[in-house]
Amino acid sequence: MTADAKQLAVDVRGLRKQYGDVTAVDGIDLGIRQGEVFGLLGPNGAGKSTTVEILQGNRGRDAGEVSVLGSDPATGTRAWRSRVGIVWQDESAPAELTVRESVRHFARYYPNPRDPEEVIALVGLQAKADSRIKSLSGGQRRRLDVALGVIGGPELLLLDEPTTGFDPAARRQFWDLIRLLADEGTTILLTTHYLEEAEALADRLAVVARGRVVAEGEPAALRERFGTEATVAWVEHDGTPRAERTATPTRTVAELMHRFDGEIPGLRVTRPTLEDVYLRLTGQENAR
Amino acid sequence: MTTTAVRPRGGTRSDRLPGAWGLGLHRGALEIRQFFRQRDQVVFTFAFPVVFLFLFASIFSDDVRGAGITASQLYVPAMMAAGIMSTSFQSLGISIAIERDEKVLRRLRGIPMPPAAYFLGKIWLVLVTGALETAVLLTVGTTLYDVELPSDPGKWAEFGWIFVLGLTACALLGIAISSVPKSGKSATSVVVLPFLVLQFISGVYISIDTIPDWMLNIGAAFPLKWMCQGLRGVFLPESAKVLEQAGDWEFGRIALVLGAWCVGGLLLCLLTFRWTNRRDG
User: Fewer Cβ close by (within 10 Å): the C or N end of chain A?
Assistant: First the structure.
């Protein structure tokens, strides 16, 4: 137990948070290992942001045990804060400063900051280093936010919906940046409501819905576990489309082959995508 | 520095966190740079008291009976005091409310910044802008409205402590009032109204011998009335004393009231300051 806790960068047990009558977080358990990229996946309002804000030490909790880098965030000291990097959902860097000025300035607060020029290069903003922040595009601003999140050389980086509102190309570039940081050994917790983002980046992920963790594991394993049933679809002689959910699709197809004596009209065999699994888990299946 | 925090990475890295004083200086430099890059804000902040001085001192320029001065001369120290309050109270009250709304403060809470560094940075900003504003108003006053610079170094010493105490008290009150508006959008109206009222009842726009006593007594509860009075004592001839409520400049009392507001304002800030707005809890 103690040995286990030492290895976990983030250890959360039975976390609860209520806003008035609304329960935002309803007993969440999380264990994030050192050096891994962990995805917190869920629809809007599932309790992701509240959870991350509690981990940052910026929001109180009603119940549960929380340990982030060995400390309770609610009583986080300056020394603890210098080891945790935060990238907020709605960030605002000082608009009148240049990229270089603001990265250099934020480096001053940390005992062992990274080299500002190196960080600017890491997030790919060299060409914009002397531009005022107000002149940056949305994607460039987000990169700057990440630069300010990692300038202190954090052991743990908390990213709250970092790519919301990005176009697909900007999102891909951002993913590359996160992978770079992960390769350097930074532990990363990332919340997102984009399934493909969690799948592309996370070593492990937890699916959250209505304040609870409804599934947890590696993306591939989640698909395995919740997606073993395939769907076999075909068209009957009279033109009626049919579909059957089955754990043994081959047998179903063989039976159909026998019945149709040759080609089966409109035959399709599909495995559920991770998206189907996700929608079923978060109770949004009917929304499609 | 305690050594309880175990760092898994890096063997010989120092864990010494930078101090509040040094960070405060850096924040001050940053605040000043940001301030002067927002040209509209610079113009608005500096021009406002100058325009008002020009209007009032040009409209009311008659001799004040029995005081040996003109009404224009009265307006110079009055507008200097208002200028100090506008660069401290008004600009901090509004800008901090906006920073809170735009989550600048929340970000600062998320980094290892000692809170004192933030306030020190604001004090540096206000010292620089307040000194500049005062210099501009004094230049206009001496060139256009016959105000004479005192030759007695004692008067300059009095000017020094009135400026520092008045500025500090108003800056702290500005920081305190920044927590009142619910959003950055409503900040201007919330901050400007009390400032405007105070200017009327503290002898800025209207000469103190014209204001009803009960109004002056309310004004006397706040720093602005005493800043005006002190600056009149520094820049007007002794003959103008007759216009004062007490018939004297009362420098001792001014120091006492402004000093008390510095302490009270600090307590108010410590008790009420919020890093996030109400919605964010």
Answer: N
